[in-house]
């Protein structure tokens, strides 16, 4: 029978001390790492590296980038980690031209703002000032436009109901056709309050009605393709026929 090897306490003490020393060193290294990480975070948050440097505006058409940024309350130089995206979103959505908006960080130093505007379908002039007409038929008298776009002017529309009916029809007019319209004039009569006249950018005049306006205008390219270089009035009310301009 083999004799068991006996390890004395004196032999074990150095090993215990060395083990404890290694554990203490690892613990110290762990705490020092946390300390330096916290210091690095504090330095970063206080440095220009954490500041908003760019505000990227997307989806805007009627509003300029400057106007969207002004509405948002965002300021270049603010800390990007202190960004209150909900507040900025609410600020921008208060503008009557804005339908919805999203605001998000895009690290390292950019805030991305994606806006969805109400579509402007035209403009109405009042007292030598132009106001935008939105896709839902609302006229924004609170937002006079310094510079108007390529959308048509709406003339003589004195009753909101007919204006809203027309804007509802415009939703279904293809853009390539709608973009040809320069002016739309309301010409109501006692018998028919739906009559309108369109002045087109390609030189034609179209007399039609608000009723089924979209379906009638979808035929416009086919009609003018048969007219060669002749210009005149295209009647698209009950039926469709062409009346050449005369001197």
Notable traits:
three-stranded mixed β-sheet; 3 domains; alpha/beta; 7 helices; Rossmann fold; Ubiquitin-like (UB roll); 11 strands; 247 residues
Can you describe what's shown?
With 247 residues, this protein is α/β, with parallel strands linked by helices. It folds into 3 domains: 38 residues; 68 residues, Ubiquitin-like (UB roll), CATH 3.10.20; 125 residues, Rossmann fold (3-Layer(aba) Sandwich). Helix content is 32%, strand content 26%. The chain is built from 7 helices and 11 strands. The strands form 3 sheets. The protein has a 6-stranded mixed β-sheet. Helix 2 packs across helix 3. The chain is rod-shaped. The termini are far apart.
Radius of gyration: 35 Å
Q: Spans of 5+ residues with little confidence (pLDDT < 50)?
A: none
Order of helices and strands: HEHHEEEEEHHEEEHHEE
Give the helix/strand class. alpha/beta
Give me the CATH architecture of the largest domain, please. Answer: 3-Layer(aba) Sandwich
Q: What is the CATH topology descriptor of the largest domain? A: Rossmann fold
Fraction of residues in helices? 25-40%
Number of strands: 11
Tertiary shape: rod-shaped
Q: Biggest sheet: strands side by side, in what order?
A: 6-7-8-9-10-11
Average pLDDT level: 88
Beta-strand residue fraction: 25-35%
Q: Can you identify the CATH class of the largest domain?
A: Alpha Beta
- Tell me about the largest β-sheet: 6 strands, mixed
List the helices and strands and how they pair.
Elements: H1 9-46, E1 54-58, H2 65-72, H3 85-93, E2 98-106, E3 110-117, E4 120-126, E5 129-134, E6 153-155, H4 160-170, H5 175-178, E7 181-186, E8 195-200, E9 205-209, H6 213-217, H7 220-224, E10 232-236, E11 240-244
Parallel strand pairs: 1-3, 6-7, 9-10
Antiparallel strand pairs: 2-3, 4-5, 7-8, 8-9, 10-11
Helix pairs in contact: 2-3
């Amino acid at each position: 029978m083999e004799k068991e090897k006996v390890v004395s306490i004196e032999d074990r003490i150095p090993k215990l001390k060395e083990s404890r020393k290694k554990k203490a060193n690892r613990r110290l290294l762990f705490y020092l790492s946390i300390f330096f990480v916290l210091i690095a975070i504090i330095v970063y948050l206080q440095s220009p590296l954490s500041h908003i440097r760019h505000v990227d505006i997307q989806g805007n058409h009627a509003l300029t980038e400057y106007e969207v940024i002004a509405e948002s309350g965002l300021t270049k130089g603010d800390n990007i980690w202190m960004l209150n995206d909900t507040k900025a979103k609410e600020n921008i959505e208060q503008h009557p031209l804005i339908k919805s908006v999203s605001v998000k960080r895009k690290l390292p130093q950019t805030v991305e703002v994606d806006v969805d505007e109400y579509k402007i379908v035209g403009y109405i002039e009042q007292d030598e000032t132009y106001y935008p007409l939105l896709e839902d038929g609302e006229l924004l008298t609170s937002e006079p436009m310094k510079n108007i776009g390529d959308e048509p002017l709406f003339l003589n529309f004195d009753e909101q109901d007919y204006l809203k009916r027309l804007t509802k029809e415009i939703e279904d007019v293809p853009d390539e056709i709608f973009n040809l319209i320069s002016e739309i004039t309301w010409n109501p009569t006692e018998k028919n309050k739906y009559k309108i006249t369109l002045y087109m950018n390609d030189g034609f005049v179209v007399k039609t009605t608000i009723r089924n306006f979209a379906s009638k205008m979808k035929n416009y390219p086919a009609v003018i393709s048969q007219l060669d270089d002749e210009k005149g009035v295209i009647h698209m009310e009950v039926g469709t026929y062409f009346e050449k301009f005369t001197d």
